[in-house]
Structures are given as structure tokens and as C-alpha cells.
Amino acid sequence: MPNEQNTQDQLATISQAQRERLFHIDFKLYFLGSVNRTDLVSRFGIKEAAASRDLSLYKDLAPKNIEYDTKAKTYIQRDGFAPLFEYSGSQTLAALLHGFGDDFVGTQKPIVTCEAPTQLNYPNIQTLAFITRAIHNSQVLKIQYRSLSSGLSEREIVPFALIDNGLRWHVRGYDRARNRFADFVVNRIEAPQLISEEIPEEQTKAADNQWNRIVDLHIVAHPRLKHPETIELEYGMQDSALKVQTRAAVAGYVLRHWNVDCSKQHSLNGPEYHLWLQNTPTLYGVDNLQLAAGYEPEPSEIN
């Protein structure tokens, strides 16, 4: 078998379209254990002869990964399989849940039976399109915004990033009405209008201290748990800790989403608290800590 570097060198000389088909073969073998020409024909709209060439090329690149099952008339995963490509968790789960493809043509189906928590709302697509254009083209966005504290108001914001907090989507940007950086819930935005004008540097991403500050979170199994090793295994902890780096601007979302007990003495007792933030001082100066369960600010943060 060619060594890994030689294989990667060979992949680099192959067209993007064929690499995508090789990835498809690799994915099916890895996660389903089998693949055949019909899979490639139906997914990519190629001829059977082309599908056969792709399978032969894959076998040349990774002969220990694939063999032909004459009885089932399909290619199957061999013992000792080692994936030819790298897979991210988000990419893999998205494919398993929603099906292959980024062309959005046709109906995509889950690859295996699976369920995800019901999403109660999705970003309004028309609003989202205005936001992403504003971000991409460095434009100001004039909006009508509904907040829980002040109701409907008119704002001008300078957006630069989208944030998924696990429950809803936000847009991060400079709020000209309040002269500060803030997060806006996408589905509370109405009547967006793009404004093209020069944006002062103090209203850009580079000036957002909360966005640019990186916070180190040391998360451990909650000390009250009878078998903390269960949580250590579940979260893939190293040396009994999960060390996460996140932006200060989203730290509160992360801690809330994972129900991390942020009290200094791990005092929260609800059954949802499997995790505890071991280094609570790291949160000093983070803005959105009203979302961090149990966190008690220092007196200097209150004054």
C-alpha cells in the first residue's frame, strides 16, 4: 500500500470533482460498510463506466480498505480499514442526519435513521440574506428590532458574524444606537435595509474586545457525581478535564448550552448539571455571564 504521503500527493493531482466522488466512496465504506456503482451514479449523475473507474482508483489508493463481495455484488469495507479522508464531527453528523450534498437539488434523506431535537424556529431566510450580504460586503444594516426590554425600535448595526447559541441564531455587530457591540436575535429583526458607507474602525470586528478575547475554560465532571468517569469518557476528557477555548462574546452561550455549573463551590444540585467550571476566575470581565448558571461576579465587576 502506498504510504500516506504518497497517497495524499496522488489525491492532490486529481480533479476536485473526482475527489468528491472518492470522498463519497470513503464515507459510505466508513459509516455504512458498503458502496456500489449505483451509489455514485445516482449521487453524481455519472455513467456506470465512470463509477467503475472511481472505484478502481479508490482501490489503487487504499487497497486495504475495500474489496468486492461477489455474492452481494457490492464493494465492502475490509478489516483494517483506515479512512482516506479526515472527517469533522459536524460534517459527519450533518450528512448522516440530512443526507449528502450541498447543491440542495432534489430531496435529501437521512443516511441512517436518526433524530435531532425539534428546532422551534429557524432563521428567516430573507432576513438572513440581508445580514450575510452586509457581513460579506462590510455594509451597515438599518433594521427594526424587537427586544424584550424596549419593544420595537429602529437601529443601525454594523454586523460582522453569525452566532448559533444552540437554541437560536444571533448576529454580532456594532449597535450605533447604544454605541457598543451586541448580539441581535435574527428572528427579531424586521425590515432590513443595506446602507453602503465607510465604516469607522471603532465599529469593526477588530475593535470588539469581547469578540477578540479568548477565554480558556477548564471543564470537569461535576464533583457531586457518583461516577465522574462516565462523564469523562462521554466528553473525551484528557487528564479528567475538558479544556475549551472560546471567545468571551460567546462564553455565556457555551456554558448555558452545556449546563455547566459555574459556581465557585460547585453548589448547583440539579440533575442537569453534569459539568463544573473548575477555573471560574477566567470569566472575569466576560459580558454575558447572566447566562452562566451559578456564576457570582466579583465585587469589582458589580461596581
From TrEMBL:
Residues 18-86 form the DNA-binding transcriptional repressor CapW winged helix-turn-helix domain. Pfam families: BrxR_CTD, WHD_BrxR, WYL. InterPro entries: CapW-like, CapW_CTD, CBASS_pafABC_assoc_protein, WHD_CapW, WYL_dom. Residues 214-282 form the DNA-binding transcriptional repressor CapW C-terminal dimerisation domain. The lineage of its organism: Bacteria, Pseudomonadati, Pseudomonadota, Gammaproteobacteria, sulfur-oxidizing symbionts. Residues 127-193 form the WYL domain. This is WYL domain-containing protein. PANTHER family: PROTEIN PAFC (PTHR34580:SF1), PTHR34580.
